[in-house]
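Something for you to look into today, if you have time. Could you write out one complete protein record for me, on any chain you like? Leave the record below and I will have a look.
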Amino acid sequence: MRLRVAQDIFLVRQLGREVARAVGLETQDQTRMATALSEVGRVLLAAGSDTVVAFTVEPYGVPALKVVLAHPAPGEAGRLTEQLQQVGRLVDTMEVDDGGTGTVVRMARRLPPGAPRLTPGRMEEIRAGLAQHVPGSPLDELAVQNQQLIAALDEVRAQRDDLARLNAELEETNRGVMALYHQLSEELEETNRGVVALYAELDEKSVQLRAASEAKSRFLANVSHELRAPVTAIIGLGRLLTDSASDELTDEQRRQVELIRTSASDLLTLVNGLLDLAKAEAGRIEPNWSEVDLKAMFGQLRGTLRPLATRPEVDFVVDEPGVPVLRSDEVLLAQVLRNLLTNALKFTASGSVRLSVHAAGDDAEFVVADTGTGIPPELHERIFEEFYQVPGSMPVSGRGTGLGLPYARRLAGILGGGLWVDSVPGEGSTFTLRLPVAS
């Protein structure tokens, strides 16, 4: 259609609303499109000359209703862009430029997802319907505008009421949140006070525990040191009494003296264990780091412990080391392995006791495996407690003090590693000592 006189503005508005309704735009979008058309038409009509208005549908991408207004007067794009700045808010896109024959205004509004499909047949129906459209009078259009304005005001009022309600709910929620925040703050403050008091109590208990541990270590060290001399003297006197150069003893006297010497030897072993454990707890053992030749050490252990492996039912095997050299304290390492092997030989009646070592990443794993009585799973950690012995366990040879394994674990920690056990009752035990190859 053409826009020539003021009456045509009403017609453009009516047709724009009808086209928007026919292609499936919602009511509010119909009003926006009609209002934008009437405002653009008013501005173009004020500039003089006829204006051609064309309605098209862009079917590609997101479907949209597009309106093109062609004004024959060139060079108006800049002025019209400024005047129509507010109109652009009513549509999705609006462009004003100078075409080949004048100024062109393009406006578009996207169709909603639920809009009916605009097939060629549907487009023909819309064109036929618009051709039969009877223009209404200005009063009719004014009445329609008033209805639209009333509907918009009702919607604005409803939105304002909803906003007021939401603000009231938000305010109530904020009050609840603030009350909860204050409550949580008070509870947190009370909890913090309790935690601070608990930490203070723990610090006090820690100091007391450390003092008790130091006192125990001093007591053990002092008592062990004081007992060593008389116990050694008893052993020496027993040896003198049974010496061939001394007066002949009766069989009963010799048996009694041997009992005294055996008891004194056991007591000396216990005293030495207590003294070693006290030194380890007091942190007085400093490793002497050096390159340890494991092949030589294994040979020394094989020779030292061979006298304990005298039963033909038990094979005492020391494998060739899979790790030839590592950096550690040779004396402390040998003491740990000697304790483990001695313990295994004591509780193995038949089968084998085997010592081996292999690489495990950057560490070396020493394994002492036996086929002895075994240890229940619930006691795997308790055997590393001082003076604890597995109930019902009867050593095949010698007697234990319950200090060898705790001392061995402490030495393993001093050497930078760890010691643990894997055992099944009736099948045997496997003690694993893991140490870094390079300390």
